[in-house]
Amino acid sequence: MIGLKQGPTYVKDFDYEEFQNYLSNLGDSLLVVNDDEIVKVHVHTEDPGLVMQEGLKYGALSKLRLKTCVINTMHKFKKQQPFKLRLLL
What pLDDT shows up at residue 79? Predict the structure, then answer.
């Protein structure tokens, strides 16, 4: 969760379109919900640090949850693809 306009990292007002477009390039299963005070984010990404850095521009982060999701694909041999992290802000 992002507390808008809070904390020392806050540098700009929240822009839903800009934020969602940026995050859509970093992962999938994206969901962004906001009101005047907070933003909640759900995204599957290989680089949660970039997601958190972008969120910090709008305010303070709280209630972070990271979960590793390993994706398996069946071919001739079972291959393990790079893992993604499920990030809830």
Answer: 53
This prediction has a pTM of: 0.80
54-82 pLDDT, tens digit per residue, is 999 999 999 998 887 765 544 444 555 55
Copy the structure tokens of residue 71. Answer: 């994706």
Q: Residue 67: how many CB atoms within 10 A of its CB?
A: 10
Separation of alpha carbons 54 and 41, rounded Å: 12
Which DSSP letter does residue 37 get? S
Q: What is the pLDDT of residue 75?
A: 47
Helix (H, G, I), strand (E, B) or coil at 38: strand
Return the structure tokens found at 65: 């949850």
Nearest of 64, 70, 65 to residue 2 by alpha carbon: 64
What is the distance between the alpha carbons of residues 84 and 81, in angstroms, rounded to a whole number? Answer: 9
* Helix/strand/coil for 12: coil
